[in-house]
Design brief:
Blueprint (H helix, E strand, L loop, with lengths): L5 H16 L3 E3 H7 L3 H9 L3 E3 L4 E4 L8 H9 L10 E2 L1 H7 L10 E5 L11 E5 L7 E3 L4 E3 L1 H9 L5 H13 L5 H8 L4 H9 L4
Parallel strand pairs: 5-6
Antiparallel strand pairs: 1-3, 2-3, 4-5, 7-8
């Protein structure tokens, strides 16, 4: 009496495991892999159990809101036909993640591969670059550029020298970036980054 059939319970459990790793979000493909047919997905959306948040993206209605959930949604938005996610949180947004600046960006910055062709959602700035594996860190449900890569990116951006200096000092003091590593990276950095770091006495 009142029990949930095994197949449905198994699907619920699988989907929740996926959503829990992604701040409550999941894709239609992930729901299908968990055991939800197209018809059952439509039912849960219409019943209000799932909230639609972009093409093929859902969120469990009563999942608690968590820090970084907007970044998770962008990761899912950036997926290709094979389900591979390409966006990496970067620039001023990455500074915010690493707590290296009090700057509050009005837009969310992400790096995508040069071949990436999707049009960004409102309020999102795309930077195109093919990142090395060592330039990226995994967070809870999203990826972000390392503190070192982040400093190099914002040094080549319009970020003020004041904020660049504060972020660099904080990164060095907290051991998030080693001075020697920064000096090495600057040897092959863009001219703009080299020039701005020169004002800070680096390398």
């Amino acid at each position: 009496m009142g029990s949930v059939e095994p197949g449905r319970k198994d699907a619920e459990s699988k989907l929740y495991d996926v959503a829990e790793r992604q701040a409550g979000y999941f894709t239609a493909s992930q729901a299908r892999e968990a055991g939800y047919s197209h018809a059952s997905q439509s039912y849960h959306h219409k019943a209000g159990h799932w909230l639609r948040d972009g093409w093929g993206i859902y969120r469990l209605n009563h999942f608690p809101h968590v820090a970084g959930e907007d970044f998770v949604r962008l990761m899912l938005w950036s997926r290709d036909r094979a389900g591979v996610m390409h966006a990496v949180v970067s620039h001023e947004s990455a500074l915010q993640v690493h707590e290296l600046s009090d700057v509050l960006p009005h837009e969310t910055h992400v790096i995508v591969p040069k071949r990436f062709r999707k049009k960004p959602p409102d309020g999102v700035v795309l930077h195109r670059a093919d990142l090395a594996e060592g330039d990226v860190r995994e967070r809870d449900g999203y990826r972000v550029t390392t503190p070192l890569r982040t400093l190099l990116d914002v040094a080549a951006s319009p970020l003020s020298l004041e904020h660049l200096e504060a972020a660099t000092s904080e990164a060095l003091e907290r051991g998030l970036v080693r001075r020697h590593a920064l000096e090495q990276a600057l040897r092959v950095a863009s001219d703009g980054a080299k020039k701005r770091f020169a004002y800070l006495g680096l390398p």
